[in-house]
Design a protein that fits this description.
alpha+beta, 4-stranded antiparallel beta sheet, 37% helix
């Protein structure tokens, strides 16, 4: 899938690859030996932020919500990037419209 996907396409991509969830060993070019660090590096390179806040925006029970706007991610991500994020354990919460990781 090319860049500039819609939010619907972003959600569909997360759904499409749910069987790859936490399959970190399937990532070819790892940026870290740790799945969460790999995801953070990829997200920071795609959407670097303003340097004033953390990538983790909130935590609830066993979830860490990420300070990444889904619309912004959809504009710059490819299907392959989303697949690697899924392999790192990143999920999309449709109710809160945000990305998160389980601890």
């Amino acid at each position: 899938m090319k860049k500039n996907m819609s939010i619907k396409q972003l959600i569909a991509t997360f759904d499409k690859y749910e069987d790859e969830y936490i399959q970190f060993e399937n990532i070819v070019n790892k940026r870290s030996r740790r799945p969460d660090m790999h995801a953070f590096i990829v997200l920071d390179e795609l959407l670097p932020g303003d340097g004033k806040g953390d990538l983790i925006s909130a935590a609830e029970h066993d979830q860490f919500f990420l300070d990444i706007e889904p619309e912004a991610l959809a504009r710059v991500a490819t299907e392959e990037i989303i697949l690697d994020l899924i392999r790192c354990g990143v999920s999309f919460d449709e109710e809160n419209e945000s990305l998160f990781l389980f601890t």
